[in-house]
């Protein structure tokens, strides 16, 4: 039960984040919004990292350099997310983002790229994606 | 319309890559080191791209309201909730619930136009659309795949 509540709140925060970024972008510009929100988030995360004294951060150097650069994608993600919300609204933007995200992850899993254990594509995942696309079509038309 | 759709597709694809990469970091270095690194690099990349496109204008912050300075904390809330949710429920169910709530709040937000966003009037058709998408998410997530490799959505 507590786990469901956390997951539910997590999802709510993700939507709130997109909406807040969109609102802030309108007043100060999109790159400004992306820069400021990630700077303040970074500072907060750094404070927490020092507070929790998790020594595991020292193992960052064991991670392949490519994987360490994922964060830089955040700039383009926030820009695209904000611009999409401005153009087509929150619901449609998030629906399409989820479809693209699940499809690509599914595809990468099935190819076993980036050292992921290769997974066979199964029927339920195709049906699931099909339903999601059908949902978007209903939303839009 | 087309621009909005294409940008949403780009955002989703990049999020997929980012989550795969972040998971690899997370496995070794823990969730707070990962979050710190991800937001730090995101900040540097935004600053760089912003400077390229806007030059000194990047530092001109029009109508900066006080709460804008704190909005970055939402991202920290996302990490706390998802990490706890996945720990207690396992990734599959936690992510399925999080995605559902994400869409539910999106619909709520469009309908109410909170924070001064353009209102997208609520209609029955939209509710049906969201419910069909949610059913797709559950079929996708719960339809017989091994738990261990589930990519967790962290940010």
Automatic annotation (TrEMBL), chain A:
The chain crosses the membrane at residues 30-52, 64-82, 88-109, 121-139. It is a multi-pass membrane protein. It is found in: Endomembrane system. Keywords: Membrane, Transmembrane, Transmembrane helix. The keyword Membrane applies. Signal peptide: none annotated. Its main location: membrane. The keyword Transmembrane applies. Pfam families: DMT_YdcZ (PF04657). This is DMT family transporter. It comes from Neobacillus rhizosphaerae.
UniProtKB/TrEMBL annotation, chain B:
Keywords: Membrane, Transmembrane, Transmembrane helix. It comes from the Bacteria. The chain crosses the membrane at residues 32-55, 67-86, 92-115, 127-144. Its main location: membrane. It is a multi-pass membrane protein. It is found in: Endomembrane system. SUPFAM superfamilies: Multidrug resistance efflux transporter EmrE. InterPro entries: EmrE-like (IPR037185), YdcZ (IPR006750). Pfam families: DMT_YdcZ. PANTHER family: INNER MEMBRANE PROTEIN YDCZ, MEMBRANE PROTEIN. This is DMT family transporter. It comes from Neobacillus rhizosphaerae.
